[in-house]
Structures are given as C-alpha cells and as structure tokens.
Amino acid sequence: MDDKALIKFQRQQISSLQEEKSAAMEALDLARELGTISSLSNPQSSLEMLLQEICDRANKMIPFKSCAVYLIDNDTQDFVQARSCPEYAAARLEKEVGLLIEDQSFAYALQSDGPVFFLDSAGDSHIFLHTLLTPSRVRGMFVGVMVQSKEDILDTTLKLFSVFMLSAANALENCETREFMRNHSQELERKVQQRTLDLADAFDRLDVTLDGMQAGVMVVEAEDHKIVDANPKALEMLGVGWEELIGRQCFDVICSAFRGNCPITDRGLNEDNGEYVIERRDGVSIPIQKTVSRVMINGKLHMVENFIDISEQKKLADLKEDVDRIMRHDLKGPLNGIIGLPDILLMDDEGNLTESQREILEYIQASGYKLLNMINLSLDLYKMETGAYEYHPAVADVYALARSVLKDLFELINYKKLVVREQFGGKGVEKGFSFNIRCDEFLTYSLLSNLLKNAVEASPAESVITLDVNDDLGDILIKIHNMGVVPEDIRDTFFEKYVTAHKSGGTGLGTYSAKLIAETMGGSVSFESSDVKGTSIFIKLPGIED
C-alpha cells in the first residue's frame, strides 16, 4: 500500500472513530439526561408527555422512519400501542406488530434484554424491537422502523440505547407509581372532605337536638369532675350561665351529697340512674331523675349526665297518696255498717232466718271483712313503702290460707276447668294437710291471693296449677306453678309497680305488693318463665324459730 492509500485509509479510520466518538458522546449525553426523562420535577407531567419524550430521544440516538411504545394492559395483559411517532404511522406499525405476534417473533424479542431486528413485511426495512424491562417486570416494548441498515449502527450506540430503554422503563414505573399516589391522594382528600362534611353535619344536628331537648345534659370530666359542656335546658334548670357553669365541679351544682361517693368514678359503675336534687343558688330545690353514663372523648373518660325535672311528678304522687288516704278513710264508715248489719240479723235466736238466709248473711259479713282488710292492707302497703310498717309475726297454716284464697277463686277455676294440686316437698298430700309457718296471717293471705289469682288467670284451660311447700334448712319455700307464660317485654320489670301484661282490669300492683309483703316478712320472691315449662313463682320466708 503506497503512502497516499495509507493516508486515505488512516483518514477514513479517523473519520470513523470521530463519528463513533460523536455518537457515543451524544448517547452519553442522552443517558446523562435520562434522570429527567419523565420530567419528574414537574408535577403536571403526564404519561403522554413521557411517551412522547421517549420517542423523541430514541430518534436522536437511532433515526427511525416511525416508532411506537407498546405498554402492557394490567387487566388483559395484552400489549397496547400507547404512543406512535408520527401519529399517522400508527396503523402501519400496528400491522407490522400484529404479524410479528403471529409468527412468534414478538415473543422471541420479549425473551431478550437487548435490541432485536426483523425485516418488515415489505422486506426493505428493518424493524427494531427493544423491551422496556425493569428488575421486577416487563413494562412494554419499543418498536421502530429503521432508516438505516442495522449494520450501520455502532455497538456502542446499541449498548447505550439499552441503557436508555432501562431508564425509560423505570421512568414509566415511576410515572405509574406517581399517578397511583396522585389518585390515591385525591381519593383520600375526597374522603377526608366528605367525612369532614359528615362530621360537621352530625355536630350541627347534635347541637340542634341537644338545644331542643327538654332534658338537661351535662358533660363532666371523670378525672376531676369538672363540667366541660352543658345544653340550654341544663343551664335553665341550674339557674346559671354557660361561662359561670363551665369549669365548676359537678358536686357544686348537683348531687352534692355524693361527693367522694360517685357511682361512676368511686364505685366503678358503668351507668347510674336515680333521683337527685338540684340546690340552686336562689334557694330553689328541684327534684330530678338523673342518668349518668361513661363515654370516651379525645381519649379521656367523661361522664354524660341527663336529667329531667320531676317536680310535677312528685306533686302528683303526693296528691295521689292524699286522695288514696281520704278514700280509704271515707270507705271505712259505710263498710262498717255493711259488716255490722248482718251481725245484728244473725243474733236473732227466734228462728226467723232460714239456713240459706243465714249462709247469705255470713257470706256478706265475710266479704265485708275481706274488703275492710283490703283497705287496711292498702294502708299497710303505703307504710311498707315508706319504711313505717311494724311487722309482728305469728304462726299460721299456709295450706289453710291457700285454700281460703282458692275458695274465693272457685268460679274462675271451675269455668276454666283447672286442677289445683297441693304438694309438700314435691309429693302430693292428703286432703286437709296442714303446715304452720312463721308469718303475718293477713299479709300471707294477701301474698298468696295476688300470686294464686295471677296463676289462675294466666293458666290455659284444662291445665294444672301446683302449690308446693318445702322446709329447706329452716327456710320455708313456696312454689306456685302454672303453664301460663309471662310476656318477654315485662320479665325484667315483673315485680315493679304498675307493670301489667295489658290484661283486662289489671292494675300492675299484684306482683309489686307480693314482693313488698314478702320482703317485709323477711323473705323474697322470684320467678322463672318459659314457653316450654310455663311459669314458677318462688316465695322464700323465714322458718319457725326453735
């Protein structure tokens, strides 16, 4: 090779090296800029902007007639064309990709981590494919129809293009993550705004409800018993303003007698319900019915006190007691006349009365005495309620008292075809069996009268009522059983005053007075009731002392 040829060859080599260096430097510049490829510093950037930038920068590294980015659809896992450059080439690229998918060339390219070349369907251009691959998954595929032959592309350029594709795939991953976070943040903001509106609405409705309530409501911190809030009705009843009330201890304005003995904080109850008195500064005392319950507010234990003014109820109760006492007193006069007249007639020894007439007079007299005893009992029940009754026990035959009650109920027992069985210790007894217990005879008669009358009225027709007495280690246990059932809605309050199963003529005082009498005699009364076993009333009384 002569000198001229050698110089020419060396110039060609130098030119080639310069081109390769220029291409490499340009590729390196592009690679250096990949950190901002998705314009992550711009919060307004979008996937479309990122895809366009990928196409533009790919064209700077390797000239393409047209190119496109295919991304994987997360729902179908299919490759979908997301961006093409220029846009009018989209259909042709879609056709070429479809053919590559059919002959498995596309699948082959997915297995490679570098560029793969195929001839297009016309056979005059190379199709360039490169996966968009992150360490965790395949993001998509870059597809381009090349301007030049694949042999004209430097290996350095291809290697740097692979680096560019890796950065592009990561940029797509970051873009998706940012979009997810943006959507998630927007959804959270929407939920927070909605919850805020809901809470504001709930507070408004609660304020309207509390302000309109005819009951006083106070919120008290459990730790120091300081009042932190109160509704207008509470302020009205307490006779103070809001600023004057807040911060004061609840003992200073209500239930002062319970200082140091709070049912919630000192006795550990979850709820308390009872009658209390408000002592106002103006000297007015207001009886109230108050309910206190525990609540947690901002992580601290509080008490919510609800109370109503029961002054009118107290006045009505006192008026009722006055009327009852007057009626009892006024009834006794005429009743003494009814009792005394048969007694006078029965003193006739001249035989003017037939045996039948005598029986009628004796029945009138006995009924009069029973009515007089009932009036006296109503006075005794009042004394029992107020703790003023003096109990003087004696000895009486419990079976004789029960038979006397059943005799008065004979018509109803006969009408319903009921059978009454007497037992002692669970076993039947002979007719006329007796057993003495320590009691007040008239109170025990009233006790059995109330409970046996209930049993007869509640029993289904043609069923059995059982009276069973038992001596249990010195205590007397009386069990009255019938197949009737106590309604579920009154079982928890069965022995409370004025509770009734809505039966005709019911006053709701029978079981209440029975419990009051049993407790006055040092005993107790309880019950069990079910649809299968019926109802059993259990009376426990002290036995006869030795």
Account of the protein in words:
There is one protein chain. The protein is elongated. The protein has a six-stranded mixed β-sheet with strand order 13-12-15-16-18-17, covered by helices on one side. The chain has a five-stranded antiparallel β-sheet with strand order 2-1-5-4-3, with helices on both faces. The chain has 13 helices and 18 strands. β8 (271-279) and β9 form a beta hairpin. The longest helix has 58 residues, at 155-212. It has helices spanning 3-32, 47-61, 90-102, 105-110, 155-212, 232-238, 242-245, 311-346, 355-386, 398-408, 410-416, 441-458, 510-520, and strands at residues 64-72, 79-85, 116-119, 126-133, 138-146, 216-221, 227-230, 271-279, 285-297, 300-309, 394-397, 419-424, 427-428, 436-439, 464-472, 475-482, 524-530, 534-542. Helices cover 45% and strands 23% of the residues. The model has no long low-confidence stretch (mean pLDDT 83). By secondary structure, it is of the alpha+beta class.
What is the first-to-last residue Cα distance? 148 Å
Q: Order of strands across the biggest sheet?
A: 13-12-15-16-18-17
Oligomer: single chain
What are the segments in which pLDDT stays under 50 over at least 5 consecutive residues?
none
Roughly what percent helix? 40-55%
The overall average pLDDT, rounded, is 83
Number of helices: 13
Q: Mind telling me the C-alpha Rg?
A: 50 Å
Structural class: alpha+beta
User: What overall geometry do the principal axes of the alpha carbons give?
Assistant: elongated
Q: What's the β-strand tally? A: 18
Q: Main sheet?
A: 6 strands, mixed
Strand content: 15-25%
